[in-house]
Specification:
- By secondary structure, this protein is mainly alpha-helical.
- It has ten helices and four strands, in the order ααααααββαββααα.
- A four-stranded antiparallel beta sheet has the order 1-2-4-3.
- The radius of gyration is 50 Å and the shape is flat.
- InterPro entries: Ribosomal_mS35, Ribosomal_mS35_mit, Ribosomal_mS35_mt.
- It is found in: Mitochondrion.
- GO terms for molecular function: structural constituent of ribosome.
Amino acid sequence: MATTANSLRLCVRACSQISTLAIRPRRAVLLRRALSTTTARCSDEGAFDDDDAGTSKFYDTAGDVLKDIAKSSEENARLAQPMLERWEQLSQDEVAKLDKLTKEVIQETAEIRRPVRITKNMFWNTNEPESDMVTDEIGEDEFEEDDMTSMAHGKLEEHREYREYARIAIWEMPLLAKFAQPFRPPSRNEVLRFRYTTYMGEIHPAAKKVVVEFSPADLKDLTDVQRLKLKKLAGARYNPEKDIIKMSCERFEHQAQNKRYLGDLVKEMITAAKDPTDTFEDIPLDLRHHKFKVKPKFPKEWFLTPERKKEIEAERQRSYQLDQDKKANGGLIDGIKQIQKMQQLEPVRERVPMRVLR
């Protein structure tokens, strides 16, 4: 089998030589006679034949290929001689099968081996195959308009993402139970509260943002004057209603860098608030940045007093007693009975006016 494959390979190699087309300038026909009644003919009938007609050789069988290779050089003769001997030992049926297979291979590769003819109408050689393409343009499957739309592909990708998270929830999430820790409320020394934003399943530019909140009242090592100075240093980041200073940072690429920057900034503000050289006592606390929203409260005068509740309950009892008396005397109208009575009556047909022709 190996010998047959080698013979076929050598045969295809010999037949797959690509003929090159030489671009030949047009020759002007020079007339030796000023006036002639006969047509001009070339002196050589084969002068305009294809110059490259003999560059490619075609063989009838693989044995002819091996014989030609053996005549080229001594090394090729030494390599081709064993295969040529085995080729001569093959039967007629095997030779016919190999010849048929060789012809099929040549026919299949004819489109690839065919040279591209350059014409004058070609603009920037647009018909030539792209040499920088990863895939081969020749012989690719054509689009048969049987694929899904882009929106359907997006929906399918979304479904794959849902299934991926479902697998994580079933197989990987239970393994995290051994790392669970009981909730521990923050101590008095942990006054900073950081907040992060995570966008599941995507890379978002806002995911690097970090927000820190703290209350000046939680800083026990500061005096009242120092806390007031800290509020003045915070400026518009101080909320007087909640007594909270809120700051954020997103100038760096990672969350850890922004968190570190905010931590250092809070330390610098506390250090500046403790500086006794200037306490900012002559500067008032500016709260113009915050708008106090007045929320109306329910008036206390409108609350129900115990006496008013007793009056309402007594009125309800009197109304209930009157209904019971009417029900006993038959004066209370039963709505269900009235509906059933009206349903038993025959419907009155409305008379429709008709136009009389005169």
